[in-house]
Amino acid sequence: MLASTFFLIVGIAVGVGVTGGAAAITIPIVTRKKRAENRLLREYQPSKAKFLPKEVDVELTGLRADLEWLVKHEEFKTATALSSVISLSQELFSKLKNRGDEHQLNLAAISYGNILAKLNKALSPDYFFDMLENPEQWENVEDRRIQVRNAVKAANAELLEAIRTLNTYTDMDYGVAIESILRNSKVGDMLSTFK
Q1: Model pTM above 0.70
Q2: Most CB atoms closer than 10 Å: which of 57, 85, 147, 165?
Q3: How many Å apart are CA 64 and CA 83, to the nearest integer?
Q4: Where do the domains of the chain lie?
């Protein structure tokens, strides 16, 4: 924050001193960047959710720290995908907890906890972050970065598909219950006349 404030002040001073109009260009660029940083970090603050299994919550805590680092270092595309992974993970486990199926919740905790742990490892200071800070020390650095970014996107897609699948089963459960009510009641007879 201090660095971007310094950049803003220096940008205004230099812009006003040299051309008089550059300050108007410098301020919106810095402001837009800062808004993007704040939005990403504000939306995905650490959760106090009671529904998260311990192994998942531990991994999400690590991913939240990774998210802050990515935003700080202007890796916004990866940060956006990672923030979605965090949000979808919370959504999936919230839905599983609401269903009340402890067996399914435990299986998901093992499976998705493992995926989140691998993401934490890929985004660790010794790997992805080091590639961003010290690219000259890595061979095929861009290919490796792309692999990590694709892994984050793949985890995002897998979590989204899991939620869709869970919603499909929930929809089937409710659909059967509604059809049963409609078949066995006078309400069903009344509703069928409106078809």
Answers
A1: no
A2: 85
A3: 8
A4: 1-43, 46-185
